[in-house]
């Protein structure tokens, strides 16, 4: 008997190809693609038996937040994560969020279908060696290494951190200078130093890098209380 499924992935071609293959095998696919930001809402609304949720970055913090919400509001829905070859921490994070299993993007359709059937039956749908590594990580979590945001933050002086926060807020050189009580030429020099230290070529790139690595979240207290100008 076919399974009521949803395939949710940012990559439309991948999602539609998988959905088509599963339809040919007798399954009812309710949706084929959606951005990650809207995945939870879509699944909660449609309430499939099994959802295949794609991700390209299983180790990224918060990547499985949609799984948490789905399981909270639709606990009967089994969520299978589709992703690249993971490390144990990524697998552990998926299970900790409530996923029923993890399937590699390059898995054959027969393997995907076996995982779907296991998930619907309430079983863990993941290769035994990956499952063992994931449980080991859950029971004995490894110390988190210094993340990229912290590494980048350590390269900047308190004054440069304040400049970066202002750049990310969209302030131009004139506003940065006025807000910090410095000359525009000094503000311009600070901006150039920030760009150089971060290894980017523009203010937009600097703001994007800071947001992506969580540097801005860490910079908040520092930026509010900048040290003496360096």
UniProtKB/TrEMBL annotation:
Residues 4-120 form the Response regulatory domain. InterPro entries: CheY-like_superfamily (IPR011006), Sig_transdc_resp-reg_C-effctor (IPR016032), Sig_transdc_resp-reg_receiver (IPR001789), Tscrpt_reg_LuxR_C (IPR000792). Pfam families: GerE, Response_reg. Keywords: DNA-binding, Transcription, Transcription regulation. The keyword Membrane does not apply. Residues 149-214 form the HTH luxR-type domain. This is Response regulator transcription factor. It comes from Streptomyces coeruleorubidus.
């Amino acid at each position: 008997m076919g399974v009521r499924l949803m395939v949710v992935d940012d990559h439309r071609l991948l999602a539609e190809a998988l959905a088509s293959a599963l339809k040919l095998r007798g399954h009812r696919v309710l949706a084929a693609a959606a951005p990650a930001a809207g995945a939870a809402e879509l699944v909660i609304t449609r309430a499939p038996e099994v959802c295949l949720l794609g991700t390209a970055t299983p180790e990224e913090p918060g990547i499985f937040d949609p799984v948490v919400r789905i399981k909270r509001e639709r606990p009967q829905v089994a969520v299978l994560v589709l992703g690249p070859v993971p490390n144990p921490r990524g697998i552990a994070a998926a299970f900790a969020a409530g996923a029923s299993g993890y399937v590699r993007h390059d898995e054959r359709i027969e393997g995907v279908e076996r995982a779907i059937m296991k998930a619907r039956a309430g079983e863990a749908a993941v290769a035994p060696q990956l499952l063992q590594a994931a449980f080991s990580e859950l029971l004995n979590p490894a110390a988190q290494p210094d993340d990229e945001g912290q590494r980048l933050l350590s390269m900047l002086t308190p004054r440069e951190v304040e400049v970066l926060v202002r750049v990310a807020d969209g302030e131009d050189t004139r506003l940065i200078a006025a807000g910090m009580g410095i000359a525009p030429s000094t503000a311009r020099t600070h901006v150039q130093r920030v760009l150089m230290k971060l290894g980017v070529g523009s203010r937009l790139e600097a703001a994007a890098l800071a947001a992506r690595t969580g540097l801005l979240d860490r910079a908040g207290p520092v930026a509010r209380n900048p040290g003496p100008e360096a």
